[in-house]
From TrEMBL:
It is an enzyme of class 5 (isomerase). Keywords: Carbohydrate metabolism, Isomerase. It comes from Brachybacterium sacelli. The keyword Isomerase applies. The lineage of its organism: Bacteria, Bacillati, Actinomycetota, Actinomycetes, Micrococcales. Belongs to the hyi family. The keyword Isomerase applies. This is Hydroxypyruvate isomerase. Its EC number is 5.3.1.22. Pfam families: AP_endonuc_2. Residues 23-246 form the Xylose isomerase-like TIM barrel domain.
Length: 259
């Protein structure tokens, strides 16, 4: 049985270091890949050089996110943001082209309480297809993620079932399911059951323990069972640590030892 491939989210991990130095730090801890929200002002060429020097491929980046520092978590479902979406998609395409990134996560965003949900979902489908049209020729597939509404109030797609509804409309072969173990647990779902139910549709997995959103082993989730479910069902994608680090990366060696 092949082992799982673990990546580090460099937007959340190793933040005590400059962005370009995080690749080497992740590699030293045993991660085999990297993902991030943005290049934090670094040029795609500089990021590509840092990733190559560390031997750490970039396996996923986020697409149009809006103003992350101000609390936006995507804009794909938000009305009135066509120009922003187009401009950020251009920048995302540059990163994908320079780093040969295979997956781009398109975040739906937070909806106002008064939002027309049906119109927002139609807009999301339209923009997902626009992103797919732009990125597929570069070798990247679009993914769509669920985000819990306790951490991100008003997020348009709180649970995997919401993502699946959009995938049905946009085309399941063009939009992959990005399953986040932490977000599923925070919505009261059983991550193992979600894995068993949704493979082989899962294109990418992200992990953090709950509660707390720290590394596996710091909360209440049964990660040996999570990893066993992925292995048993032949998952071949990446498992990315997207957590607030507290106790280091010792969990990674333990995860690999329990095969």
């Amino acid at each position: 049985m092949a082992d799982l491939a673990f990546a580090a989210n460099l937007t959340m991990l190793y933040t005590e270091r400059p962005f370009l130095e995080r690749f080497a730090a992740a590699a030293a801890d045993g991660f085999a890949g990297a993902e991030f929200v943005s290049t934090e002002g670094q040029s795609p060429r500089a990021v590509a050089a840092a990733a190559q020097a560390a031997g750490l491929p970039v396996v996923l980046v986020n697409g149009p996110t809006g103003d992350w520092a101000a609390g936006e978590r995507g804009i794909a479902a938000l009305p009135g943001r066509d120009d922003d979406f187009a401009a950020e998609l251009d920048r995302t395409a540059q990163v994908v082209g320079a780093l040969d990134v295979p997956l781009v996560n398109i975040l739906a965003g937070r909806l106002e309480e008064s939002a027309d949900v049906s119109a927002a979902e139609s807009l999301l489908v339209e923009r997902l297809l626009r992103a797919a049209d732009r990125l597929e020729p570069l070798g990247a597939r679009v993914t769509l993620e669920h985000v819990n509404v306790h951490d991100v109030t008003g997020y348009a797609l709180p649970v995997p079932e919401d993502v699946e509804r959009i995938r049905e409309r946009a085309g399941r072969e063009r939009v992959g399911l990005q399953l986040d173990v932490y977000h599923a647990a925070m919505q009261g779902l059983d991550p193992v059951a979600e894995i068993e139910r949704r493979l082989p549709d899962i294109a990418h997995v992200q992990i953090a323990d709950a509660p707390g959103r720290h590394e596996p082993g710091t909360g209440e989730l049964d990660f040996p069972s999570v990893f066993a479910a992925l292995r048993a069902r032949g998952y071949t994608g990446w498992v990315s640590g997207e957590y607030v680090p507290r106790d280091g990366a010792g969990w990674l060696a333990r995860a690999r030892a329990r095969r």
